[in-house]
Write a structure and sequence with these properties.
Elements (H helix, E strand, L loop, with lengths): L5 E6 L15 H15 L7 E6 L10 E5 L3 E4 L3 H13 L10
Parallel strand pairs: 1-2
Antiparallel strand pairs: 1-3, 3-4
């Protein structure tokens, strides 16, 4: 059994050369928001959900990127409403958000 039911990685990479990167889309702020919301919901704990930073996930052309394990479900997002949908649908109810999958 995995230590977490869902382990979520937010790419928070900032490219030094000025190339497109997730940090151009406030990735660190969105990660902080997701972690805070999961804590508020009481799901950010061992056996349930863990939100982490990741370095470059090498999918910069997709926009800001999140990957959820297990299942290796890759998402993109635009705003907090998208993050809320991923949390509510996938992390709370186990249902993949098809419209945000990449």
């Amino acid at each position: 059994m995995s230590y977490y039911q869902y382990h979520v990685f937010f790419c928070t990479n900032k490219r030094e050369d000025g190339g497109r990167c997730c940090q151009d889309f406030n990735a660190s702020g969105m990660r902080d928001y997701a972690k805070k919301r999961c804590k508020k919901l009481g799901i950010h704990e061992p056996g349930n959900v863990r939100i982490n930073n990741a370095g470059c996930l090498n999918r910069c052309e997709e926009g800001p990127v999140i990957v959820v394990y297990p299942g290796e479900i890759w998402y993109t997002y635009v705003d907090r409403e998208d993050i809320d949908e991923i949390i509510d649908s996938h992390l709370v109810n186990g249902k993949v958000v098809e419209r945000l999958k990449i």
